[in-house]
């Protein structure tokens, strides 16, 4: 036995299991009202908050303003939600949950039509532009809320909520990958979706959009030209 070495085998360190990501919407799921009257009050609060976010942004959606718009007292708001942040989380979850369900239903319907990729892409780009323009103000407010949130688990969950539609689009596009000339379609589709989302965000949703790109039809044509040429889709 050498000096300074123990004859015992070194003990292996216990493995530490990775902590599960906290669910930032857990409180909302646990506190779903059971009584019809409570559900109605909840709906009125969420609707009122959405309206104020759409009309005046985050600064306009104060608790007193929400209570007044919903026709309830401030105390009712705080009995339903411990603070304004939890109310905004509920609005975020409901709004983008509905957007996701609507997008997935639309994609499923389009997939049944068996369109060629060029027609499919035009329809998807046009629908995305119209949807973002129609809901521009509230999307802007909720994106700003998520971006500036102090809770990293909420920021990650917010991003993940919006990825499901992108994944579904990518799957649908990859089913038609033979109509692309890109050397690596799976990489190309992912990058194209990222680019489309970033450009529409900058051109439509941001508070200082690129107005030269938002005239009727121009943005759609430029995005189509970009994606078609990048992926090698025949027009």
Any key phrases for this structure?
Arc Repressor Mutant, subunit A, 235 residues, disordered N terminus, mainly alpha
Architecture overview:
67% of the residues lie in helices and 0% in strands. The protein folds into two domains: 34-81, Orthogonal Bundle (Arc Repressor Mutant, subunit A), CATH 1.10.10; 91-231, Tetracycline Repressor, domain 2. The model is unreliable at 1-10 (pLDDT under 50). The chain has 235 residues and is mainly alpha-helical. α6 packs antiparallel against α10. The protein is elongated and about 60 Å long. The chain has helices at 26-30, 36-56, 63-70, 74-80, 84-111, 117-134, 136-147, 152-174, 185-205, 218-231.
Low-confidence segments, given as residue ranges, are 1-10
Distance between the termini: 78 Å
Shape: elongated
CATH architectural category of the largest domain = Orthogonal Bundle
CATH topology of the largest domain: Tetracycline Repressor, domain 2
Q: What number of domains? A: 2
The secondary structure category is mainly alpha
CATH class of the largest domain: Mainly Alpha
Largest sheet: none
Mean pLDDT: 87
Overall strand count: 0
Secondary structure tally, helices: 10
Strand percentage: under 5%
Indicate the radius of gyration in whole angstroms: 24 Å
Helix content: 55-70%
What string, H for helix and E for strand, traces the elements in order?
HHHHHHHHHH
């Amino acid at each position: 036995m050498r000096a300074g070495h123990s004859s015992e085998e070194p003990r292996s360190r216990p493995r530490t299991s990775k902590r599960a990501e906290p669910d930032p919407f857990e409180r909302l799921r646990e506190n779903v009202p059971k009584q019809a009257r409570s559900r109605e009050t909840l709906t009125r609060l969420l609707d009122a908050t959405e309206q104020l976010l759409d009309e005046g942004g985050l600064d306009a959606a104060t608790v007193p303003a929400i209570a007044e718009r919903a026709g309830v007292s401030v105390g009712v708001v705080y009995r339903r939600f411990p603070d304004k942040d939890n109310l905004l989380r509920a609005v975020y979850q409901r709004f983008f949950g509905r957007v996701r369900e609507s997008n997935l239903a639309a994609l499923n319907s389009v997939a049944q039509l068996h369109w060629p990729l060029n027609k499919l892409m035009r329809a998807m780009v046009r629908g995305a532009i119209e949807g973002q323009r129609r809901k521009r103000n509230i999307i802007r407010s909720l994106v700003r809320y998520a971006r500036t949130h102090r809770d990293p688990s909420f920021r990650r969950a917010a991003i993940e909520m919006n990825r499901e539609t992108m994944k579904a689009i990518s799957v649908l596009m990859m089913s038609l990958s033979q109509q692309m000339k890109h050397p690596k379609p799976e990489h190309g589709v992912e990058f194209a979706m990222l680019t489309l989302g970033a450009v529409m965000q900058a051109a439509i949703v941001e508070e200082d959009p690129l107005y030269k790109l938002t005239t009727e039809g121009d943005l759609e044509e430029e995005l189509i030209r970009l994606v078609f040429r990048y992926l090698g889709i025949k027009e």
